[in-house]
Structures are given as structure tokens and as C-alpha cells.
Design a protein that fits this description.
0% strand; 10 helices
């Protein structure tokens, strides 16, 4: 129990590192919180610095979720414990200790969490994102579709109801963080991938 608590704390502290902000500072790009959509995530960094910057940001955010949950899984922690570790990393990204508790929307970090706990679930969510991105050319629509299905995929594959509830909580937070995007989608004004807002 104490070990699991330490994993949760460590995951939150790791999640609090913002890949987007740190990359932009190191390369002289504008602070993503003050430019474009104002979101410190890969999609906004794509607009500010191009594909290379976006890929590095995406990988950094994904690893924040993957590393702590992957460690929990390697140490044979129960799936529920690993899910809480992942939730902590995810909350660190959304509400980072080091950046005034103002973080990103959590899609890449949540994907890393799923890959760490159950790689097949993570692969299905990533595949759903890619399919919907290809169809709609809208990043937020792809993310919302993928994470609407994420807890269903997880439960279907594992039968773990409590851990699926933790995944569902992450999905709900992703929807909450995308509330402006949802309004834009309903209004038909959400920007397509590769275009500025």
C-alpha cells in the first residue's frame, strides 16, 4: 500500500513536467500557453513549431503516462493500482505543480497510461484516433471519439470494472478539457489539422 502511494506521488510529479512548455523554452519558440489555442499540447506546438516540435512534444507527453504505469505493471501491481498511478500522471499533466496548475488536455498522456496498463487497449484507442483523424481531419474530434470508447475497450478486454471506472474518469476529464472544442465542433468552427485557429 505504501509503495503504491509512492508510485502515485511520483507519477503526479512526473506528469507535472510540461513537454510543450519545456521544448518551446529550450528552442526559443513562443510559450504555447500564450499563442494559438493557448493549450500546452502537441497540436498547438504543431502550429507554433512544425511537425518535429509536435512529435517531440507528443512523445514526451505520452512517456509521462507510459513510464509510471509501465513500471507499476512490471512490478505486478494490480490493474486498479496501476490505473490510479496513471490517473496521477494524467492529473499532473492537467494540473502541473511546476506551472501554476495550468496544463494541457491530457490526450497523449492518457494514451501513454493505457499503453502502460493494457497495451491492446492503448493500441485500439490510438487506432481509433488515427481513423477518426483521417476521416474528420479534426484533432479534437478524433481524441473525443477515441476516449469515449477507451473505458469500453478496457472493460471488454480486462473485465476489470473498478479500473475501467478510473479510465472513464480520465475520459470525462478529457471531455471537460475539450469543452471549448466541443462548442466549436457543434458550431462548425473547429480548425482542421495543420491549420491555424
Amino acid at each position: 500500500m505504501v509503495f503504491d502511494i509512492l508510485l502515485v506521488i511520483g507519477a503526479y510529479l512526473l506528469g507535472s513536467f510540461s513537454s510543450a512548455i519545456l521544448y518551446c523554452r529550450l528552442t526559443g519558440l513562443p510559450d504555447p500557453r500564450t499563442q494559438g489555442s493557448g493549450n500546452p499540447g502537441a497540436t498547438n506546438v504543431l502550429r507554433l513549431g512544425g511537425k518535429k516540435a509536435a512529435v517531440i512534444t507528443l512523445l514526451g507527453d505520452l512517456l509521462k503516462g507510459l513510464l509510471p504505469t509501465g513500471l507499476a505493471s512490471l512490478l505486478h501491481r494490480p490493474e486498479l493500482a496501476a490505473a490510479f498511478v496513471g490517473l496521477a500522471a494524467f492529473l499532473g499533466h492537467l494540473y502541473p505543480l511546476y506551472f501554476g496548475f495550468k496544463g494541457g488536455k491530457g490526450v497523449a498522456t492518457a494514451l501513454g497510461v493505457l499503453l502502460g496498463i493494457n497495451p491492446i487497449t492503448g493500441a485500439l484507442v490510438a487506432g481509433t484516433w488515427l481513423l477518426m483523424a483521417k476521416i474528420t481531419r479534426i484533432s479534437s474530434a478524433a481524441a473525443l471519439s477515441a476516449f469515449f470508447l477507451a473505458p469500453l475497450y478496457f472493460y471488454w478486454l480486462t473485465g476489470e470494472l473498478a479500473a475501467s471506472g478510473v479510465i472513464a474518469a480520465m475520459s470525462c476529464l478529457i471531455f471537460w478539457r475539450h469543452r471549448k472544442n466541443i462548442r466549436n465542433l457543434l458550431a462548425g468552427t473547429e480548425p482542421r489539422i495543420g491549420r491555424t485557429e
